Amino acid sequence: MRRLLIILCFLAAPAFAVQPDEVLDDPALEARAREISRELRCLVCRNESIDESNADLARDMRLLVRERLVEGDSDPEVLTYIVERYGEYVLLRPTTGGTNIALWLAGPAMLVLGLGIAVVYLRGRRPEGSGEDLSEDEMQRLREILKE
């Protein structure tokens, strides 16, 4: 039973695609490379980080990150270099500035617009009077109809 539990733990753990020949000798640089790789999207797999993807492009990007770190770039410089090379889509968490602000605001704006349209529509369906505007003859006729 204990072995089964250990096997299940390994199966539930995230699978990293980093190959042994990619790993840097310096543990501090390797840790930085892993941290940066978790923030970058694999352009082939779309919703996986390059750290988790087995695609050839993801491997190339991992090697590029490590190459830039070995050359002495800081983490933001590495991210900037990768974004300049592959575009902002490569970031798993896109920035909230620039032209992306329209995308960030579009969802809440559509929600408010939809709620406004629903309120106007529902108010238009409300009956005009509540029955208090009827004359005595009309009220008597309504009672007769309801009794039938």
From TrEMBL:
Keyword Heme applies: yes
Q: Which family does it belong to?
A: Belongs to the CcmH/CycL/Ccl2/NrfF family.
Q: What is this protein called?
A: Cytochrome c-type biogenesis protein
Q: Where are the transmembrane segments?
A: 101-122
Return the Pfam families for the record: CcmH
Keyword Glycosyltransferase in annotation: no
Q: Which residues form the signal peptide?
A: 1-17
Query: What job does this protein perform?
Result: Possible subunit of a heme lyase.
Q: What InterPro entries does the entry give?
A: C-type_cytochrome_biogenesis (IPR051263), CcmH/CycL/Ccl2/NrfF_N (IPR005616), CcmH/CycL/NrfF/Ccl2_sf (IPR038297)
Q: Which UniProt key words apply to this protein?
A: Cytochrome c-type biogenesis, Heme, Iron, Membrane, Metal-binding, Signal, Transmembrane, Transmembrane helix
Residues in domain CcmH/CycL/Ccl2/NrfF N-terminal?
Answer: 6-146
CDD domains tied to this protein = CcmH_N
